[in-house]
Amino acid sequence: MFFERLDRIYGRRDYLTRNKARHLYVMDLIIFFVSLVACLMYIRQGIRFGFLVFGISSLVSIALLLLGRLNYAIKAILYLTLIAWTIGLQFGMKNGNIFFSMATIIIMFLHFAEIRQTVAVSVYSGTLMSIRLYQAYTQGEVSSAFIVDTILKLILFCTIAIITVRVLTSHAREKEIFIREIHHRVKNNLQILSGFANLHQSSKGESDLQQIEKFNERILMLSRIHDAIYKTETNYEVDLNAVLEEIIRLISFQSSSHKIELNVSENGAPLSIEISVPFAMIVCELLNNALRHSSPKHKESIILVELKFSENRYTLTVADTGPGIAKNSTWSQPKTAGFTLISVMVQQLKGTFRFESNGTGSKAILEFSDQDTFASLLN
Fold this sequence. Notes:
With 379 residues, the chain is α+β, with helices and mostly antiparallel strands. The protein is built from twelve helices and eight strands.
């Protein structure tokens, strides 16, 4: 019944919050019954104030939890429990197991609080415990070896516990980032496909079959781009030099009569996926255009691809040694799908693009700054 009520209260919250609410509720119930049993068992020896505060804190936490105040419920149980342990340490039974209680509190803070708070609580409780041990030592109740052994074991326990939780938290955070990255990439790819459809829908002078074929070619191109990027991706960053090499390797299979030469800088900075995808699409579009529109008289034509990195700025050059660009070429028509696609991708990169032709060859030049692009993505 109570779990159903929790589900109604926290049903629209995220998965981690719902689980945390359930864990807190179960822990509050256990704390309440443990405190009740401890108080009843030793009622003849007097009130155990530590367990009394312990039990009251669990009831307060449950009440706040059922009111939808999860954060306040967590703070109530954690800090009131710490107060209860402090009271028990000062006024409780001398032969009580304070060390186990201290370890329990540290684990509670690790699960429900931040690492910094856990470290502060560990230092606080360790200091009080050291004072208690010193008092016991002066009274001849424990030896110095016992004190040293206890403190060292406490430090070891806290270190292992904090590192373990830190690793688990990092893994959970990494999974969360990975899931968000997947959603983001899927959304971007769907937007790109939608853009492809709009480009070919607005194309004029082509039959429906030709538009479908080109649309299919660009979808396959996008798939190959992602294959090339994922092969070179490390820590959500991509080496553009490696992407270029992979793209050229894939495109070279399409035409054996053309030779593609690559010249890249060795000091290029790695970029994010969001930047690498439009960059790779521009490269593929330029190379496919060079292969598609090359003159049949130049069967052994050479396509030169050069990527330079200087002063935080990339410069991509795609040049061929063919007959150049004729006046009736598709590149002289800004409304073509290929040119429009490149223009859109250049805008995403916040870069500049120009096309040069002198009759003996053609050259496409793309320039963009990695710092400007990163800043635009962050904004």
